[in-house]
Amino acid sequence: MSRKTILMSLALLLTGACTPLSARPLVDVSVVDRDTGEWLRQYPHHGDTWVAGTPGNRYGVRLTNTTGERVLVVLSVDGINAVTGQTAAPSQAGYVLEPWESAEIAGWRKSLDDIAQFVFTDLGDSYAARTGRPRNVGVIGVAVFQESRPRYYPAPMPSISRGREYERDEAKSASAPAAAEGRIREQAADSAARQSMGTGHGQREWSPVGQTQFVRATRRPAQISELRYDDAHHLVSIGAMPRQYPRYERRDPAPRAFPNGFVADPYR
Predict the structure, then answer these.
(1) Partner of 143 for a Cys bridge, out of 74, 128, 157, 191, CB 3.0 to 4.6 A?
(2) Residue with the larger pLDDT of the pair 207 and 1
């Protein structure tokens, strides 16, 4: 893996329309438990994607550039920019990934040389709560920007005039999705109220990065992705993760014709 590059100053912004989102994300986001080495399975649930963390374990966020061009990734953990410590916003500093590069971000950036490890911890001990910002605990998010380059913009298409009847039908069709979005927001608020785990400010770790310049192609990010996380008990309680049952083993197995694979030596 090549050396991670960090953008420490705000990138220059160019005006222009946002690039349409493609079916494949520009950057894949995953979470690895650094104490067990396991990649945390992602569970889709009511429009969110969840991972189950283990309290006390360190974790890393793996960012993978799926394109052949550089991208800028602004990483938010619990609503806080993982580079600057500010309340996160897409316009802030982030990590620049080279074409096809993968980088594991394992902590809060303290300097160009070191980080404070990401650790799953109780909500009250999370860095966000300890700095008075607990509102967005339990969310890992990225805002991804493409780099500015010369582009061809076709001439605008002519406008059309739509009748009032069409506009009434359009408004009616939009009411159903709006109601569904309202229910999803209520479910999300209820889920957030039961959040039990956040990300702590762990031990210092050597993790050097460099600096570079990056000119954003658009003011708005080309991709925004979120991962929700909490402990397994919470994920089971909201139905996002199946309940794990202990493995059943028979204490007195029935007699078998071939209990062993080979003939043992006789007793002496």
Answers:
(1) 74
(2) 207
